[in-house]
Design goal:
heterodimer; A: 284 residues; mainly alpha; 74% helix; globular; B: 334 residues; alpha/beta; Rossmann fold; Alpha-Beta Plaits; 2 domains; 4-stranded antiparallel β-sheet; 12 helices
Chain lengths: 284, 334
């Protein structure tokens, strides 16, 4: 089949183009020197939980329970992963999909290819999403396993014959959805703004103001829906992290998941439309 | 660009039907582009036909802006552009027919020369075997086959220029836009590249070249577009542009055996403003405000006085002269 025959079948053409762009972009998203700090965000909790497991396994008398470990991991997930790690990781990955190429003066090679800009935007988003999911879902899974690994057979029992695997699945799904949601937001800021840091700071403040917002405004936040998907209860309302606790009735999963996907899709459509009007003006 | 060039596969020329029908054009209709308050180009009206068209002008005159506009990398602030009937706002159609070799000396990281061309042919949507064939063909045309497996980051400036050129031509476009394509090339590569441009022009393709090396532009151009401060100062075949520059007398060189006699006869005419005998005593450089009349007069003088004339040729209908007359020394162009 020749190029002109492929070009006559739009879906086949777009599929091939997405695959070709993914091949180029994944290499950059996964193995970029620019992403060193994302590796730190990813490996940090893995290293800490791994260390915890190592120290606990060598200790003769452990002063905490596996339930406490689970609660601590729930705290790490909500406070670190959702509010910091995935947020800033997605900022680094997605806002650079277009912006980094502007800085490196290489975006024009894509713009000089017979590719719809919408296809380019979606392809870049998918590449970023795959990279973000590999990083952060991987990090969540490893951290979860390392957190309680020192409990040995008890943990295995909890994982395979108790609620462990189910919890792990929900943590992974929530992390993936966070990548979907924040990814679309930061792809858009990368397309719209020369310096995406300012809008990112606004989003960050908004997301972290969530506990203090009136219940109606809380609903206009990604974190609100993500927190409702977390498998292990709420952050205690009387501890040091009480200010992060949700005071509003969270939406059920059946509403939170499609809601987040729909909002992300809308943002992605808007970003793709904006990408169509993007100009290459490196010197500006 | 090597001696094996003739044996290399050639991009298909436009079909006889395409060539016999009215030539499709690149059209600028009252196009202006501003960068904030800074003028890029203003009120440009152009119709560029097939063949080699050179954009000439000093730095900042709007050459690259014009090229970026016709390739859709930037949008006009006002006016409309179409390339073979396709607006640059539709890159998915435009770049099936167009290739653009930009001035940007940057490449995606971590790719070899081969991967660079091949990867972007796959982005076109081509199947792997077709992309591989076209990649090899393009590499061969710019004599980069041997260096194809080395990282682009390790290339010299000239090699980077050639690999960019290969990437621009790999999909066999009918419109080629080349921004300073001869930069960084050694003399041999320049000659080979110019031969390639000529061949494409003769095949009926649109080849739009910007260059500040005027004698090279002169060698290859079917027509020129002179730009200054964002305005099109003149356009068309170079001789036509020269004849339109009425305020500068034409210079005509006459190689003959009695230049002194010829000079004295020519000075009897009002339109002859200067006649200068060559240092070797075998020729006369005449400046006239009426070239047609001068040619008629020359015939008469030659017959009346039995002069032996070796050659008569215009001395300033080249790009360099026209550039100097219309734009002057402001550009500092060579």
């Amino acid at each position: 089949m020749t190029w002109s025959q492929i070009a006559a079948q739009p879906w086949m053409l777009w599929r091939r183009q997405v695959a070709a762009i993914l091949r180029l972009e994944l290499k950059k998203s996964l193995f970029s020197k620019r992403a060193w700090w994302i590796y730190i965000l990813t490996l940090g909790p893995v290293a800490i939980t791994g260390l915890h497991s190592l120290v606990s396994s060598r200790s003769s008398n452990i002063h905490h329970t596996m339930g406490e470990d689970n609660m601590i991991f729930a705290g790490i997930f909500q406070v670190y992963f959702l509010r910091l790690g995935i947020f800033f990781g997605c900022l680094g990955i997605f806002s650079n999909l277009f912006r980094a190429e502007m800085l490196e003066h290489t975006l024009h090679y894509y713009f000089m290819s017979p590719v719809r800009r919408e296809v380019l935007a979606v392809s870049k988003y998918l590449a970023g999403l795959i990279a973000a999911i590999v990083y952060f879902v991987g990090s969540v899974v490893l951290s979860f396993l390392f957190m309680s690994a020192h409990w040995g057979p008890v943990f295995q029992q909890y994982l395979f014959h108790g609620p462990g695997l189910h919890q792990l699945g929900w943590y992974a799904l929530t992390a993936a959805l966070a990548c979907v949601g924040y990814g679309s937001v930061f792809l858009l800021t990368g397309v719209l703004y020369r310096n995406p840091m300012i809008p990112a700071a606004v989003v960050f403040v908004w997301e972290n103001l969530n506990p203090f917002l009136p219940s109606l405004l809380k609903k206009f936040s990604v974190i609100f829906y993500l927190k409702s998907l977390c498998p292990v209860g709420e952050i205690p309302t009387d501890g040091p992290l009480a200010f992060l606790a949700t005071m509003t009735e969270p939406p059920p999963a059946w509403l939170a998941i499609p809601g987040l996907l729909v909002v992300s899709a809308l943002i992605l459509v808007y970003a793709a439309a904006k990408a169509r009007k993007l100009e290459v003006s490196y010197s500006d | 660009m090597t001696s094996s060039q003739d044996a290399s596969p050639q991009p298909p020329a436009p079909s006889p039907r395409e060539r016999s029908s009215p030539a499709p054009c690149i059209v600028f209709d009252n196009v202006s582009r501003f960068y904030g308050e800074v003028l890029g180009v203003n009120r440009v009206n152009l119709s560029i036909g097939p063949g080699i068209t050179s954009l000439v002008g000093p730095n900042g005159s709007g050459k690259t802006t014009l090229m970026n506009l016709m390739t859709g990398l930037i949008r006009p602030s006002r006016g409309a552009i179409s390339v073979l009937g396709i607006p640059p706002t539709r890159p998915e159609e435009l770049f099936r027919k167009m290739g653009y070799c930009t001035q940007f000396d940057a490449f995606p990281k971590g790719l070899t020369g081969y991967q660079f061309i091949y990867s972007f042919l796959l982005v076109h949507g081509m199947i792997e075997s077709e992309a591989a064939k076209l990649t090899e063909e393009a590499l061969q045309r710019v004599s980069m086959t041997e260096a194809a497996d080395r990282p682009v980051a390790a290339y010299s400036k000239g090699m980077r220029q050639r690999i960019k050129l290969a990437q621009a031509i790999a999909h066999r476009p009918t419109v080629l836009v080349l921004d300073e394509p001869l930069n960084g090339l050694d003399p041999m590569a320049r000659n080979e590249t110019i031969a390639l441009f000529k061949q494409w022009g003769e095949e009926g393709r649109h080849v739009i070249v910007s260059s500040h090396i005027l004698h090279e532009v002169d060698r290859i151009s079917d027509q020129v577009i002179l730009l200054s401060h964002g305005y099109v100062v003149a356009e068309g075949p170079i001789q036509g542009v020269r004849s339109e520059v009425k305020d500068q007398p034409m210079q005509i060189l006459v190689r003959c055996d009695k230049p002194g006699l010829l000079a004295s006869r020519l000075f009897e005419q009002d339109h002859v403003v200067e006649a200068k005998v060559n240092e070797d005593g075998k020729g006369l450089l005449v400046r006239t405000r009426d070239a047609d009349n001068l040619y008629l007069l020359l015939n008469r003088i030659v017959l009346d006085n039995g002069l032996e004339v070796e050659a008569v040729a215009p001395a300033d209908d080249d790009v360099n002269s026209v550039y100097q007359y219309l734009i002057g020394a402001e550009g500092g162009t060579t």
